[in-house]
Design brief:
Layout (H helix, E strand, L loop, with lengths): L2 E2 L19 E11 L14 E10 L5 E3 L5 H4 L12 H17 L7 E5 L7 H6 L3 E6 L2 H9 L4 E3 L4 H11 L2 E7 L8 H11 E12 L1 H6 L12 E2 L2 H10 L2 E9 L5 E8 L7 H13 L4 H27 L4 E4 L4 H9 L9 E3 L16 E3 L10 E4 L5 H7 L1 H5 L3 E4 L5 E2 L1
Parallel strand pairs: 1-3, 5-6, 5-8, 6-7, 8-9, 13-14, 13-16, 14-15, 16-17
Antiparallel strand pairs: 2-3, 3-4, 4-10, 9-12, 11-12, 17-18
Helix pairs in contact: 5-6
Amino acid sequence: MWIELNDNDVSGEPTACRVCGGPVRRCLDLGRQPVSNAFLLPEQIADEAFFRLEVGICTRCTLVQQLDVVAHERMFRPDYPYRSSTSARLRRHFADVARTLHTTELTGPDDLVVEVGSNDGIMLRTLSDAGVRHLGVDPCVGAGDTAAQGGVRIRIDYFNERSAAEIRRTDGPAKVIFSANTISHIADLGSVFGGVDALLTADGVFVFEDRYLADIIAHTTFDQIYDEHVYLLAVRSVSEVAAVFGFELIDAQRLGVHGGSMRYTVARAGARPRTARVDQLIGEERALGLGDPATFAGFGARLDVIGKDLVALLTELRSAGMRVAGYGATSKSATVTNYCGIGTDLVPVIYDTTPEKQGRLTPGAHIPVESAARFTDPYPDYALLFAWNHAEEIIEREREFRDRGGRWILYVPDVHLL
Ligand code: TMP
Ligand code: ZN
């Protein structure tokens, strides 16, 4: 049974850009999709909610955006299962981020840093240990509890004008507002920039990281498109968005994490010099056609090939009697399994290290999630790596799987065996 999200759950199909009001051209339809982190118990299947995952591009400011948006309360529930710290690479990445912020921006003895979407404290932990005044703002209680146990000061809340004004009253202004993989989740960017405006010092910076549209297009990582990723950001669109709210994009830096990300540094308009890198990257994006709806036609055609190739391979392996398992019950896997129609007949189980996901079924496809400790027991013949962004780490840790003849199946940037 499927339940359409009702009018309260989706904010409706925009005819105008959510930020600049310009015309939005629809360019990609990934069909009926579940809430990507809503891992289910069997008795919850009857109430499962779905929405239409469609993407459009604003022909004025080039902001790539979903046409329907799932309500925050459905996505970021108290039991939201995602934990950043499962990845050693991300732990290293965010410790580096913390050290860089500490040495470049948080140089005064009382400087305050606020993180939007602090999850389990993966970044703030380092600053907390260094004695830096900090606050993490995150609506998800479970992740917040983990952060607090690690010594991080947490406010369980959404970040917006209201919470930001309250924080300013109690803690004073923030020298740095940081966020990773969260700003693109928030449909109302006016509330984000309103909060930044309320909280940031006159010369402070708003630094945020997100998956980069150019990398998504280049590697056809269509599974980066799911309910939480309301926006697929690029340097040009972030620059335009910041300007709408009285801010300026002053720097942008490419990052390797999550299959290719960008770190954006935003300041109050005119408060800080803008690096040459910003215009250079905008020029590169123009050459790639990132602002052009036609670019998405090619992307759609390529993702169809990947989907068909993957289903063909899994079907062939099943016919040959091979044992196939999934690895990494990622949010991304919701898009792949539901778009391609991959269910338990093709992938009977997905192994994952996150206790909050184990013993549950994946959204929409209803594939059981089991502890990664059981991957060895016995090894499957083939393992479909949904957590391809952690490939190096996972393949290294599970090297015995390959030593014993197991093969990894990857679908980025095309379907191939390892
Ligand atoms: P992500 O792609 O959204 O970061 O999610 C990664 C998922 O993969 C998450 O559910 C945890 C899981 N995972 C493992 O099972 N083993 C690992 O070694 C790593 C790094 C992640
Ligand atoms: Zn726009």
